[in-house]
């Protein structure tokens, strides 16, 4: 049974904690030199404090201490999150190499795998439930590390990653209520509260950035929450639901990788090929770009909710709509043209 009063209080505990903790964390970032310095790729014109992800982490933790969720994998999820946070803090302070960050993400994922939290099956129409067998571990690693980096890569504008993940979490929260996945409900509401509290400081014009500490933590947690809930759904094409929810960051990441590979460039090299930069290059303002991406994210979130409990005919219709919307998004950003 869902206790709405407790959920609301848990949300506000996380919200207030993240909101207030951001102030001392901002001072800490300035004091230790964890600053995001401007360059030709970035939008901001002056050095900005990072480490804002610590406020999201501790805000979420405060919400969880109030809500007291129980789950067999909770300890390993927390240990993985701790590794992600430590890796993010080191990156925000010292700027780690991509391989070093990848090692941290892999260690965090290994905690999940060792506990048995893996993507072990998908559901297909006619065929039914398909056990992934020996591929389970590989797919789990790809999913967790892939989503972690997708959220990290979309964190290029004020409030962008915070807002996109919040919209995804709202969709996941609604689906968890419908499917009675209560652990997902509790984790989602805690993260939502912390995100909202930090967004007060992070929306354009931002006073602090979440840094890799925040974007990696959010990506890791969204990947984990989707494994706890969305992949466990036994409806047709259940594995597509989390992909639709996270369509914007996934599409942005794959598109950037494709464009770098096409130009024979290092696929891990940071550049301005991401959709948010390209929207701004097309003439949209900072705030307009953020709101456009929020809008597309909200539409995909709504489609995912419908998809999770739809008939087979509706499922195929939503898949087609999703592809068409992604194409429109790419045209809007000037990535492709109408033919």
UniProtKB/TrEMBL annotation:
Would you tell me the protein name for this molecule? Undecaprenyl-phosphate alpha-N-acetylglucosaminyl 1-phosphate transferase
The lineage's top-level taxon is Bacteria
Annotated GO molecular function terms are: metal ion binding; phosphotransferase activity, for other substituted phosphate groups
The UniProt keyword set, sorted, is: Cell membrane, Magnesium, Membrane, Metal-binding, Transferase, Transmembrane, Transmembrane helix
Please give the start and end residues of each transmembrane region.
6-26, 47-67, 73-90, 102-119, 125-145, 157-176, 182-201, 213-231, 237-258, 289-308, 314-335
Q: What is its main location?
A: membrane
Where Mg(2+) binds, per the record, is at: 152, 212
Per its UniProt record, what CDD domains does this chain match?
GT_WecA_like
Q: Mind telling me which GO cellular component terms the entry cites? A: plasma membrane
Q: List localization entries.
A: Cell membrane
InterPro entries membership = Glycosyl_transferase_4, PNAcMuramoyl-5peptid_Trfase_CS
- Cofactor(s) for this protein? Mg(2+)
Q: Note the topology in the membrane.
A: Multi-pass membrane protein
A GO BP term here is: cell wall macromolecule biosynthetic process
